[in-house]
Specification:
Blueprint (H helix, E strand, L loop, with lengths): L5 E5 L4 E5 L5 E10 L2 E9 L8 H16 L2 E4 L2 H9 L11
InterPro entries: Acyl_CoA_acyltransferase, Gcn5-rel_NAT, GNAT_YJDJ
Protein name: GNAT family N-acetyltransferase
Organism: Kribbella yunnanensis
């Protein structure tokens, strides 16, 4: 049985967190907010939860939120760089500066 993944913006920690149905931390991405831009700095899936789509769920939620808030995205993290290269539906969000 696969864990349910819920992704929340833990604003007080400046990161998106993935939690399982029991509230256990599965993974996260740290971010920094600048005027009009969100930089994704470091993504990590905890070892016990790797291979379950955790990082992808975090990426989708964080990028959808960026779009909804009208933010440009600076993918400083290698995972986000790769994700954005593969998921061109988010290409319009990338801050080229």
């Amino acid at each position: 049985m696969q864990n349910e993944i819920s992704v929340v913006d833990a604003k007080e920690r400046s990161r998106y967190e993935a939690l399982d149905a029991d509230g256990n931390l599965m993974g996260f991405v740290d971010y920094a907010l600048h005027p009009g831009v969100i930089s994704f700095l470091h993504a990590e899936t905890l070892p016990d939860f790797r291979g379950r789509g955790v990082a992808g769920a975090i990426a989708v939620k964080s990028l959808d939120d960026a779009r909804a808030l009208g933010l440009r995205v600076k993918p400083a993290c290698p995972y986000y760089q790769d994700y954005l290269a593969k998921h061109t539906e988010y290409a319009d969000l990338v801050d080229a500066r």
